[in-house]
Amino acid sequence: MKRNHEHAEVCEFIHVHEEVVERVTAQMPEEDDLDDLAEFFKIFGDTTRIKMLYVLLCSEMCVCDLARILNMTQSAISHQLRMLKKMDLVKSRRDGKSVVYSLADGHIKTILSQGMDHIQEDED
Questions:
Q1: How many domains are contained in the chain?
Q2: Which of 70, 64, 52 is nearest to 97 (CA)?
Q3: Is 6 inside any structural domain?
Q4: 0.85 cut: is pTM over it?
Q5: 98 Cβ partners below 8 Å, 6+ apart?
Q6: Most buried of 3, 77, 98, 123, CB within 10 angstroms?
Q7: What is the CATH number of the domain that holds 96?
Q8: How many of the other CB atoms lie within 10 Å of CB of 16?
């Protein structure tokens, strides 16, 4: 991913645009909601969890299959799945003796797809 290393430019003089500040302040979510949003995005900050989500984007599967694809232990996969499930990013269902995992909903697919589009756009 290419990064722009230029410094941010700042105003040459201090002048607060009160009407803009008031309008935006009125639209800001509650602090608790912003905290929850930050926690939500922290989950995406781990390469292993991103890999797991991408695998589940392609197909639902059980812990054994995830472990094989990602070359990890079932215990490590289960630990990460608990975190993903706690944040409502994945869901599970029983299929006979197996528990099969999938993405929780279309929002997760959209987040992953748009994130990848953004990364690949920067490479062009």
A1: 1
A2: 64
A3: no
A4: no
A5: 62, 64
A6: 77
A7: 1.10.10.10
A8: 8
